[in-house]
Amino acid sequence: MTGFLKGSATAMITPFTETGVDLESFGEMIEYQIAGGTDALVILGTTGEPATMSETERSETISYAVKKAAGRVKIVVGVGSNDTRHAVFLARQAASLGADGLLAVTPYYNKCTQKGAAEYYRAVCAAADLPVIAYNVPGRTGFNLLPETVEALSCIPNLAGVKDACGNMEQTLDTLRRIRGKCDLYSGEDALNLPILCAGGSAVISVLSNLVPAAVKALAVAVGERKLYTANKLADKLFPLAKACFCEVNPIPVKEGMNLLGFRAGVPRAPLTPLEDAHRELLKRELLAFGMEVKA
After folding, report:
1. The domain spanning residue 148 has which CATH number?
2. Residue 295 has pLDDT above 90, yes or no
């Protein structure tokens, strides 16, 4: 299928307290995204740290996001797993709680074959009558979903596309070539948002837009309107901040960035650690240089 996402989607952080998810703070972040023009919120993806969340925390967070968004933006829920049966369970759970779509990262750690990954995606797509986005991020998972595998999956009626974070533009272009008109490709790497959009990417799923949603949306709009001079200027401005957002493992920097902007983002859950002081100063400088008001 095509057309599920256009423009910009934010890979949302999950704010934690010592006892659970800070839903009030999460609601403030949702409102910030909507005010910034974001088209969809991706919750419980990599940036949301779902691997350290209980099933109760997951279901509460999904239910809250759906209720808070109230149809103003799409809610896409991360349901990926290294266990196909668990991914199917998570897909059904998210659908029952009102999700608009699902994001399924490739199986990790188990090192399946391309055939195994294809069967995994067929099972997730069959589990719920919702658009499903495959997520390829080999730097995280140790597995690379190849263009020919995405092409084979593109005939599944509810496969909306692939979030591409392979970091290899040659592979990205090959994937785009194979799936055009069948399903979509979304940029999953902020440093490559501009070239992926220009090559035919339908949207971005951005970590950076936690901090600057309006600017990331403006970049997507500029490319869509073929205003490439404007798009290049925006990309040039966004690049240093995007680089700072990945000075340590995601979501460590972006959570601290949200704290700096005055949100109660808390700290990542162990084994992730708070941002190092030197990197915090770097991130603070880039936020200020971008024109953001730093409150912490």
Report:
1. 3.20.20.70
2. no
Q: Which of 68, 74, 163, 255 is catalytic?
A: 163
Task: Name the phi and psi angles at 278, rounded to 5.
Answer: -65, -40
Examine residue 214 and state whether it is found in any structural domain, yes or no: yes
Provide the sign of the torsion angle of the four alpha carbons 204, 209, 210, 214, taken in this order.
Answer: negative
Under 8 Å between Cβ of 186 and 179: no
pLDDT tens, 239-262? 999 999 999 999 999 999 999 999
Domain of 73? 7-225
Marked catalytic residue, from 32, 135, 186, 217? 135
* Residue 163 annotated as catalytic: yes
pTM: 0.96
DSSP per-residue codes, 189-234: -GGGHHHHHHHT--EEEESGGGT-HHHHHHHHHHHHTT-HHHHHHH
- Share the mean pLDDT of the chain: 97
Number of domains in the chain: 1
